[in-house]
């Protein structure tokens, strides 16, 4: 009993010395790296926060614009967009690499079978004729295996690094999905704005032509001059000249929108005819700290940081010894009929220990490089969080200021429209000069075009806020889309 206890103590002591030795070696390689905690650095609220209240933004944020067509286009892009398809393929590649990394932790077993015949000429065994060739046959059947025991944890660290990389790849796919959705919404709105500008330009041309008709009638009765008529004709021509450029913008933006859905430009034509009737969604910004878990780009930076931390651990573990086991067994015989006899059994086994002694600083440099890369990713992680905060702040400012701008611009349009209507009435009565008429028409045209631009900017800011808040992304979305892709 006592002897057994002493043996246990000795074994425990030997294990303790081994573990202590490992700890001592690793301590010489520096401390393990860690991820910075940015939650404490996040502000309590956004500087440009509005009083919009409501639940956090969800994946159905597109419904807030009140357009079934936009919802269908976003869903179509999510299913067929080629950038998303490429990102999904990259996820499959990363998962395959993860399987390879995990397989390195397990033993590998190979089977083999061979048949060979060797013919040796008789001239090698005899001095003079007759020469007789020697024929030797060999038959082999066996298995071999090898296993690197991950005593130092290097292989586990490499597998963990690849696991984090695969996670980052899956989140990047979701980031592409979000970017595609916001790009489709933005392009759809730009198509509507371009078409609305074309409509306004055509209406302005029609108004200018109506005024031109009045001047022609007045010229016939002598109440207008040829100069008045020429000035109005110049206005009509200049307003007509704006239409081709607006048509180009409308058609090119429409083509870009269709391509985002994964189709050729000729596939379909969106029905949106303007942006003035599109609803501006009410989006609650929430608290800034939620960006740490709701922004896919921040999550990607975090996953890349975890992967590099595991790479640092692998570089530290490279300073420790590595144990490998190999073995083989099988049957071998010079005659096929004897191959399956127990006497034909052959086997071998070996264990090896490899410990670094001198490598001219290669391992130390590798570890130093891994640590430097980790510091770089820490900076990128912090930068992604700061950029996320800036994106939300910018979107909130744009939404509020464009809302005010739209109100003011609507008043400008109303005043310009009233002035244009009064000039038309005075023109019919013959109590107004052509300069006033021309200025009123130009002012109304410019005011209406500006109003469309401001309305578009307000709607685009809402799209930008939805994207800045993550578009309803969560880690559960990544898991669900990954399962669906597999």
Short description, anyone?
This protein has ten helices and four strands. The model is unreliable at 1-27 (pLDDT under 50). The chain is 63% helix and 10% strand.
Describe the protein's architecture and organization.
The structure is a single chain. By secondary structure, the protein is α+β, with helices and mostly antiparallel strands. Helices cover 63% and strands 10% of the residues. It is built from ten helices and four strands; from the N terminus they run αααββααααββααα. It has helices spanning 2-27, 68-80, 82-103, 154-221, 226-260, 291-294, 296-317, 362-429, 434-468, 475-485, and strands at 108-120, 134-149, 322-333, 345-354. The protein has a four-stranded antiparallel sheet with strand order 1-2-3-4, with no helix packed on it. The longest helix has 68 residues, at 154-221. The radius of gyration is 38 Å and the shape is elongated. It starts with a helix and ends with a helix.
Question: Poorly predicted ranges (pLDDT <50, ≥5 residues)?
Answer: 1-27
Mean of pLDDT: 86
What is the string of helix and strand elements? HHHEEHHHHEEHHH
Shape: elongated
Share of β-strand residues: 5-15%
End-to-end separation in angstroms reads 58 Å
List the helices and strands and how they pair.
Layout: H1 2-27, H2 68-80, H3 82-103, E1 108-120, E2 134-149, H4 154-221, H5 226-260, H6 291-294, H7 296-317, E3 322-333, E4 345-354, H8 362-429, H9 434-468, H10 475-485
Helix pairs in contact: 2-4, 3-4, 4-5, 4-7, 4-9, 4-10, 5-9, 7-8, 8-9
